[in-house]
């Protein structure tokens, strides 16, 4: 992050601590129709226009570390995918579909092969997706194997994270992430990460409720009182980025023991000496975490379904939320550390992973309760406040991505967030708000 921005955020942080209301001119959010969460028509539009047209996190290169390694992936309904680490060292995604009669090639979650044979009639593909042989080729006159490789899916890396996009015409990943993609690489050293934990659990709710549970902090002081006791969420501040991406800046003092050492969560840089059962915490640290990110917690959400952060010196959590049906979602959970596979085995990780999961479990209970309420005919719609602006931003972006004219009128959300509240335009608005508030305060004194 550039120094100018860091300076602005520091001023805004100080101001946020004393703010008395929402910034002047900030939009009032309209009621959101519950049908957006329970109507099959909206769900189908999301499937077509969002999940088949966005960059989606499909894994981490540590999951397929050597040439020949593969990982199958079926997070998007009806689209079986295989990620292959080719003999040329490149990671590519393909449809996991045989070019003969369309059987899925393999259902194994992971594996390592030089070639992969379709179990049905034995067509064989190499780890770069090329068809290398077929049985009884004499019965396929003029057959050109080079025309029958696996169908590729666009694949791009962000450090060691693998992203795919089913849309051949989509803009590239870095362009679509814009400023936050730049921050990920500059400040969080994605190329140095290792997988500490990878897990997933089913949630009986629409996928958007899972995302939305992760992108507002209004609930923290009510439901996470035990797990995040020192969280000052009412002073939290958000930034909305183009493309539906957003970021929350949270202020959290870690629980400290009598020597002032942080006891909970991933330790921060200045707490590197913290001990656990007499082990020194020698996990590698992010060498590029800027001082601001080290003091506060930055949590990003990337459109449409991923949340990253908070970013600590030792690592960070990544959550992806997937629709498995209209009324069921999947929460995919990663913890990334820094360093190699050895550092991912540190005795400090189970504590941090358990802490992160405990917080997310609390969310799950309430998300299920929201699902119960949202299907009721008694539900009059969703009313959001300022601290929930990222939900409005997500929903407005979904509608624009789908094409507002494609959405039944009663299921649309009003587009109320003007460009002036989207980064970087918001910087001038918040600077003006701070100036206005200071003048008013001085006049009152
Ligand atoms: S479907 Fe794969 S070889 Fe026939
Ligand atoms: Fe939460």
Question: Main sheet: which strands, in order across?
Answer: 1-10-9-4-3-2-5
Task: Spell out the CATH superfamily of the largest domain.
Answer: Naphthalene 1,2-dioxygenase Alpha Subunit, Chain A, domain 1
The figure for the number of domains is 2
Identify the bound ligands.
FE2/S2 (inorganic) cluster, fe (ii) ion
Q: Main sheet, how many strands, which sense, barrel?
A: 7 strands, antiparallel
Notable characteristics:
single chain, 445 residues, alpha+beta, Naphthalene 1,2-dioxygenase Alpha Subunit, Chain A, domain 1, Rieske Iron-sulfur Protein, 2 domains, 7-stranded antiparallel sheet, 11 helices, globular
Write structural notes for this entry:
With 445 residues, the protein is α+β, with helices and mostly antiparallel strands. Helices cover 27% and strands 23% of the residues. The protein has two domains: 3-54 and 177-438, Naphthalene 1,2-dioxygenase Alpha Subunit, Chain A, domain 1 (Alpha-Beta Complex), CATH 3.90.380.10; 56-165, Rieske [2Fe-2S] iron-sulphur domain (Rieske Iron-sulfur Protein), CATH 2.102.10.10. It is built from eleven helices and 19 strands. A seven-stranded antiparallel beta sheet has the order 1-10-9-4-3-2-5. The longest helix has 26 residues, at 349-374. 37% of the residues are buried. Mean pLDDT is 90; it is low at 260-265 and 267-275. Fe (ii) ion binds at residues 213, 219, 224, 363. Fe (ii) ion (FE2) binds next to loops.
């Amino acid at each position: 992050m550039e120094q100018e921005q860091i300076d602005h955020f520091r001023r805004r942080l100080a101001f946020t601590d004393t703010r008395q209301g929402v910034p002047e001119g900030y939009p009032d959010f309209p009621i959101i129709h519950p049908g957006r969460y329970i109507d099959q028509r909206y769900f189908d539009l999301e499937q077509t226009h969002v999940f088949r047209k966005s960059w989606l996190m499909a894994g981490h290169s540590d999951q397929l570390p050597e040439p020949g390694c593969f990982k199958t992936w079926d997070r998007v309904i009806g689209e079986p995918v295989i990620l292959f680490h080719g003999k040329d060292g490149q990671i590519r995604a393909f449809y996991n579909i045989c070019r003969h009669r369309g059987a899925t090639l393999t259902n194994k979650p992971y594996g390592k092969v030089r070639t992969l044979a379709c179990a049905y009639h034995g067509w064989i593909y190499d780890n770069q997706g090329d068809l290398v042989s077929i049985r009884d080729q004499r019965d396929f006159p003029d057959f050109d194997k080079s025309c029958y490789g696996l169908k590729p899916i666009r694949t791009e890396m962000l450090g060691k994270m693998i992203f795919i996009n089913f849309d051949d015409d989509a803009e590239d990943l870095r362009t679509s992430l814009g400023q936050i993609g730049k921050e990920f690489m500059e400040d969080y050293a994605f190329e140095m990460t290792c997988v500490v934990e990878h897990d997933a659990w089913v949630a009986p709710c629409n996928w958007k409720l899972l995302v939305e549970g992760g992108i507002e902090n209004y609930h923290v002081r009510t439901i996470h009182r035990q797990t995040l006791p020192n969280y000052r969420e009412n002073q939290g501040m958000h930034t909305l980025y183009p493309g539906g991406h957003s970021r929350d800046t949270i202020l959290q003092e870690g629980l400290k023991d009598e020597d002032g050492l942080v006891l909970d969560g991933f330790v921060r840089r200045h707490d590197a000496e913290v001990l656990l059962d007499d082990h020194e915490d020698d996990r590698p640290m992010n060498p590029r975490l800027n001082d601001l990110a080290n003091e506060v917690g930055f949590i990003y959400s990337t459109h449409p379904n991923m949340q990253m952060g908070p970013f600590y010196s030792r690592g960070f959590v990544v959550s992806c939320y997937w629709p498995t049906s209209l009324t069921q979602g999947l929460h995919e959970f990663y913890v990334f550390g820094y360093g190699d596979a050895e550092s991912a085995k540190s005795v400090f990780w189970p504590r941090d992973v358990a802490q992160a999961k405990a917080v997310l479990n609390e969310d799950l209970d309430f998300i299920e309760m929201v699902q119960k309420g949202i299907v009721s005919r008694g539900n009059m719609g969703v009313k959001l406040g300022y601290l929930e602006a990222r939900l409005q931003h997500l929903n407005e972006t979904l509608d624009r991505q789908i094409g507002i004219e494609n959405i039944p009128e009663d299921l649309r959300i009003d587009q109320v967030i003007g460009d002036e509240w989207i980064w970087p335009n918001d910087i001038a608005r918040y600077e003006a708000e701070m100036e206005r508030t200071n003048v008013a305060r001085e006049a009152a004194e």
